Amino acid sequence: MNELLRKFDTWLQDAGPAALVVREHLTPVEGPDGVLFPPTFAASQDGTFKGGYNVDHFTETENVCLIDSVGSQANRIEPLFAKAEYAALIPQIVVRAGEKTVNLLEAGHRAGDAIVRCSALQEELQTGFRAVQNGDAALLAKIAPTSLVFGAWDSRDTQAKLPRLIASTIRAFNVRELTRSAQFVPAAEYVAAGLLDESADKKTSDAYAERGFVHVPASSTPGGVIATGGIRRDASLHVAALRLLAVGGNQSDALKLLRYILGLALTAFTYSPSGYLRQGCNLVLDPDRPREFAEVYGDGRRVAATLTHTDAVEYARAAANDFGVGANRSVEFDKEQARKDIAGDGDKSKKKPRKSRSRTTE
Question: How far apart are CA 68 and CA 39, in angstroms?
Answer without folding.
Answer: 7
